[in-house]
Amino acid sequence: MEYSNLLYEKDGGIGFVTLNRPKALNALNAALMKEISHLMDQIAADPTVQVVIITGSGEKSFVAGADITEMQPMSAVEGRNWGKFGQATFDKIEKLPQPVIAAVNGFALGGGCELAMACDIRIASEKAKFGQPEVSLGITPGFGGTQRLSRLVGKGRAKELLFTGDLIDAQEAYRIGLVNKVTAPEELLNAAKALAQKIMSRAPVAVQVCKAAVNEGLDVDLDSGVAYEAEVFGLCFATGDQKEGMAAFVEKRPAKFTGK
Ligand code: CO8
After folding, report:
1. What is the mean pLDDT of the chain?
2. CB 142 near ligand 1, within 6 Å
3. Contacts for 136 with CB less than 8 Å, ≥ 6 apart
């Protein structure tokens, strides 16, 4: 598939995705969402990609939300279908085997904040602004925002942001646990790449299994979650990387992981 609304390049083991509709502050229209959905399938099947970084083009915006001009004429049924498609697309991001880092360079509003929350880790530029302003448009978040925001920052803070539609800056997003780290704007991509490199230096299967275990565990009770963890922990002992990682420790040398 030819991508017209996003840029994708592979740099070492990093799959680098730039959402690219700068004239609309990278708002998510149907064409861009279809491209994201297609690209996530491609990345999921690509063993040469170890970590994914998602950012927005331009200096102003990560993603300023779903495209309001496209949603304006929608019927209730079309709105529901659009919401379901968005949810399924962001699920693909959350469930990618590889870790995904959102490098939030500017506005992350509505669907943009929801996209960032579907990523595993969020790094924000000092200029970033976050919010779920949907109630100002007469709608609710529809791409998972009511669910992921409360899981990330807690029920009370999520409800305040959802009921008021207020925007918060990067420092406040950091304070409430919505983002992992805040950097100077010019350092954002370097910080995301440095984190990606560090993750890539660890045992790839173990990293992917950690991601799956956290995701699976948050949807079930603690007993089921730790039972899942015991299974995947055991499976790690069938990998060459477990042999290598522990041998390297005993032999006091750096490990050379192969992802096998
Ligand atoms: N959709 C479409 N176009 C947009 C969007 C958007 N979300 N955001 C910005 N744009 C466009 C503007 O219309 C403008 O276009 P033009 O130059 O042709 O007039 C261009 O981008 C630049 O924007 P501004 O001139 O407004 O730039 P400012 O710096 O003055 O303001 C803001 C920046 C504050 C980000 C402002 O653009 C804004 O408030 N944008 C809308 C933010 C918003 O409300 N986002 C939430 C949208 S709803 C949503 O995401 C729901 C997701 C789930 C849907 C599920 C449905 C079932």
Report:
1. 97
2. yes
3. 165
